[in-house]
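User: My instructor asked us to take a sequence, write out its structure as tokens, and then describe one feature of it. I'm not sure where to start. Here is the sequence I was given:
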Amino acid sequence: MPALVDAVVVGGCLLSFADTVQAQDRQDIQDCLLYAELAANDKYPGLVSNKMWFDYYQGRLLKAGFTLTAIIPTEPIRVSTVHQLLDISYSTIGRVGSKRMAQLVTQTYRALKLDAFAWDFFQGNIARGGAGILKCAPCERLGSGETVVCLYGLRYRTHVSGQAFFWDEFYKEVVIMPDGGVFAFNRDVFERYRERVHEKIDAYSSKIFVRKLTL
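Assistant: Let's start with the prediction itself. The structure tokens for your sequence are:
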């Protein structure tokens, strides 16, 4: 029977934790990803599918004391089914991050029944054409005691490949651009940033609230 998965959606990122990650580290990592999302949205409003947005998002993690230890290659990949997309995601995370991280993502998708959700999402939203970014971030604590986060982003755009017919497989081609990297989180280092990150979250949240009121 598969292990229970501890997962949470932070902004637009599916964050999952191995059971070895301590509770305080989980909360701090969630706060950092929320800060990164709010900061990137504020810097590049309406450009969530843009590489500049994702680069800025990652840069905020570095500003919060994370250390980049590995980079995910950004070679474009063409897929025609959601299953191909998920297989590529799992293998990339396993290669750049670790097998345990890839297992975390797999278990999370299965536990939350996101394979079916992803199929519907691609059939419904992307099938009409468009662009965007999907993010997931499995986290684990290594034997060395270091806690690492594999931030995996998929920027995508769709292209109609002729007449659309209904069949078992996805009838459009999706060009995806993997991006991201493995970030090491150090609690002792983050102690110097925690208060500032919380202040930034409050400030960005207040700006969003004000903007909504003025619409």
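For the description part of your assignment, you could build on this observation: The longest strand covers residues 147-159. Try explaining in your own words what that tells you about the chain.
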